[in-house]
Write a structure and sequence with these properties.
CATH architecture of the largest domain: Alpha-Beta Complex
Oligomer: single chain
Number of domains: 2
Bound molecules: guanosine-5'-diphosphate, 6-O-phosphoryl inosine monophosphate, magnesium ion
Shape: globular
Largest sheet: 10 strands, mixed
Number of strands: 20
């Protein structure tokens, strides 16, 4: 199999976990390269439901090797909780989960600082973060004051952490937050270091040796293109490179090793947290999509904002990520609609936009230009071949391909592994 990067092409929660699960059968390695436990990737296998935050979804396939790459920020306590939960459910990560010694650590003061910064922002400025300490941990990385997973293996880890806590407590004081109890954090994190030590390693040569030996890799993006620190709706974004380029910098695998980029999109759009969302539906249709699609955050449980498919966002995503194929999820959620809309461009101040403007004050004022489609009004959830879909559903998919210039490879009509069809494609 080729080496593939799978990214979210909207605002996250596109169904990446499910598609990763479907594709994992065909690869040897699954690699997370950015983000942290702000991610929530759901995989349904039969009646069992797993929500993964830090560990690549590939772990659910026995024998597949998984990497948490250098570009990820790791909350060790959250990682241990996830490991324990998997082990309790009979999934064994020993010997096949590798955590980069270069990945930065998320500490409790990052979480507190995340929360206090959010509280301090006025109503319209709140980002609506997951409060997992992701932004402050990446800020420490960029400020060159962070600690990394490899530091946990150092006999000097307690003294390194002690110095770090003192510095962080002065930052917390400036935010008006109570100090972190040094003793408790030291005890918790040195115990975590002991338990995680067998997983922490230099993942770069291990992964590159595997690739050189002909093994294939699936890079698992977290979040989505519109939440990327550079390309998203800044400042209403996360703090990492969620786009395809991040796969290289976040794993230590060179760009020429990547053969294919798969973009995951929902057949409509959702966003959780604050920030501009041109096709958002604040009416009963939005409510119906939220209820039918169970659009509530896998990490925070917050209701997701819902809207029509935005081809402007999708085209922008194609350009930035070099998307070769689409995986379209949640077609079934649109089954009962009379009319379905696709946004083909934006209009703002008499100007037509074919791509996403950088200035969010402009984006906030953009009005979508819609194309309307007749709904198919029959259930698609048991359809297993594209040919068997209702004509209107096929037309909708074909138009989505035309508007984005990218063919659909995978189509998903339900949360489970078997509610997935692969469309015939010309080989790349
Ligand atoms: P991720 O963060 O991109 O992995 O996506 P999430 O797991 O946060 O959210 C996607 C949700 O949609 C999960 O609850 C999935 O089980 C569910 N899901 C995925 N594909 C489909 C589909 O085709 N139809 C329906 N109805 N649900 C789906
Ligand atoms: P997956 O991988 C959807 C959003 C938050 C917030 C913004 C910044 O499941 O698609 P952060 O805590 O990262 O500083 O929050 O980003 N966000 C996500 N939205 N899915 C995610 O992950 C998200 N991870 C972060 O809601 O708006
Ligand atoms: Mg999610």
């Amino acid at each position: 199999m080729p080496n593939m990067v799978l990214i979210g092409a909207q605002w996250g929660d596109e169904g990446k976990g499910k598609i990763i699960d479907v594709l994992t059968r065909e690869v040897d390695w699954v690699v997370r390269y950015q983000g942290g436990n702000n991610a929530g990737h759901t995989v349904e296998i039969g009646d069992a439901r797993y929500i993964l935050h830090l560990i690549p979804s590939g772990i659910l396939h026995a024998g597949k090797k998984c990497v948490i790459g250098n570009g990820v920020v790791v909350d060790p306590l959250s990682l241990l909780k996830e490991l324990d939960e998997l082990q309790q459910r009979g999934i064994q990560p020993d010997g096949r989960l590798f955590v980069s010694d270069r990945a930065h650590i998320v500490f409790p003061f990052h979480r507190v600082s995340d929360e206090y910064r959010e509280q301090a922002r006025s109503h319209g400025d709140k980002i609506g973060t997951t409060k997992r300490g992701i932004g402050p941990s990446y800020a420490d990385k960029a400020a060159r004051v962070g600690l990394r997973m490899g530091d946990m293996l150092d006999p000097d880890f307690p003294s390194l952490l002690s110095a770090h806590i003192k510095e962080q407590n002065s930052i917390l004081a400036a935010l008006g937050a109570p100090p972190i109890a040094e003793k408790d954090v030291l005890a918790e994190y040195t115990a975590a270091a002991k338990r995680l030590a067998p997983f922490i390693t230099d993942t770069i040569p291990i992964l590159n040796r595997g690739i050189a030996a002909g093994e294939s890799v699936l890079f698992e993006g977290a979040q989505g293109t519109m939440l990327d620190i550079d390309f998203g709706t800044y400042p209403f974004v996360t703090s990492s490179s969620a786009t395809a380029g991040g796969a290289c910098t976040g794993s230590g695998v060179a760009p020429h090793r990547i053969d294919r980029v798969i973009g995951v999109v929902k057949a409509y759009t959702t966003r959780v947290g604050e920030g501009p969302f041109p096709t958002e539906l604040l009416d009963d249709t939005g409510k119906m999509i939220r209820e039918t699609g169970h659009e509530f955050g896998a990490t925070t449980g917050r209701p997701r904002r819902c809207g029509w498919f935005d081809a402007v966002v999708a085209r922008y995503s194609v350009m930035i990520n070099g998307i070769d194929f689409w995986a379209v999820t949640k077609m079934d959620v649109l089954d009962s609609l009379e009319t379905i809309r696709i946004c083909v461009a934006y209009e703002c101040g008499g100007k037509r936009y074919e791509t996403v403007p950088a200035n969010i004050r402009v984006l906030e004022k953009c009005k979508p230009v819609y194309e309307d489609f007749k709904g198919w009004k029959v259930s698609t959830k048991d359809v297993s071949r594209f040919e068997d879909l209702p004509a209107q559903a096929k037309a909708y998919i074909r138009r989505l391909e035309e508007l984005t210039g990218v063919p659909v490879w995978i189509l998903s009509v339900g949360p489970r592994r078997d509610s997935t069809m692969k469309l015939p494609l010309k080989p790349k």
